[in-house]
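Fill in residues.
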């Protein structure tokens, strides 16, 4: 049984956490994030430490989730989040311009994706893409949308994959 919700969160210097009704705002050196939190979970801050408590024993799952969400928000405004993707395939390339990325991945047309607000996308080379931002959820979601354009296939390994992702290869058909 997980007890993540009972752990305290230490708020580092330079970060402010404020509560306005059911919304919690975290401000730090990299930016500001606001998120709606469940009203069943109580939030209290003392001496740069935050504790969460639940009103009902049936709310254990949401208790741990809300605590993890706030911890991710604090980490995001301090360090930020980054996902790196790699394009593998002959002629596969990516070009980033502003907040848009253009992918040429074997289709008859280039695929253009626009990054959501607060997320930046960079093509460090023709086959490497970095997605960065302060919101863990937004960075992960946009990286997943890029990967979904051409997910890696198991026979030749072509497609878009995360840098640390392992794609299990299958053996093709065998002739006589």
């Amino acid at each position: 049984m997980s007890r993540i919700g009972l752990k305290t969160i230490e708020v580092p210097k330079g970060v402010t956490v404020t509560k306005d009704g059911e919304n919690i705002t975290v401000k730090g050196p990299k930016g500001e994030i606001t998120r709606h939190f469940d009203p069943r979970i109580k939030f209290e801050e003392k001496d740069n430490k935050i504790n969460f408590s639940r009103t009902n024993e049936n709310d254990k799952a949401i208790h741990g989730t809300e605590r993890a969400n706030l911890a991710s928000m604090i980490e995001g405004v301090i360090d930020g989040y980054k996902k790196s993707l790699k394009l593998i395939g002959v002629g596969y390339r990516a070009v980033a311009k502003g907040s848009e990325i253009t992918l040429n991945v074997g289709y008859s047309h280039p695929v253009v994706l626009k990054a959501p607000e607060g997320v930046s996308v960079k093509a460090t080379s023709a086959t490497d893409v970095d997605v960065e931002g302060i919101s863990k959820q937004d960075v992960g979601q946009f990286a997943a949308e890029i990967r979904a354009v051409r997910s890696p296939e198991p026979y030749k390994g072509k497609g878009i994959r995360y840098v640390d992702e392992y794609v299990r290869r299958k053996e093709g058909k065998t002739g006589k």
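Residues 60-78 form the longest helix (19 residues).
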